[in-house]
Amino acid sequence: MLKNLPIEDLKEGMTFSNSIVNKYGQVLISSGTQFQIRHLSLFRTWGIQFVSVTCNENNTPNEEVNSEIKELAVEQLKRRLLWEPQKEVELDMFNMAIIHLVKRLSNEQENNI
User: Is 0.85 topped by the overall pTM?
Assistant: First the structure.
């Protein structure tokens, strides 16, 4: 299963489904490489926030998200955007933004408890 994940959600053993490239198009990590914790510093150095990985049952991130928080994130994002995602890349960006907002809203909710 392919997933676009924030780098903070990566777990060792996940496999990069695409090569990770910097802003100059240079390959930093080849596709098929397994994620290791040391890769995080490389991502942070180059400002890489999301990567595409292949997950299996053993390393799939927990996707149990409060549906109310997810709905709130979708509503907030739709209010900010002046367009609806039409192409696959736009939908990927929209979904990555939702992941980011859900994470932020969940953290805010935990801090308010």
Answer: no
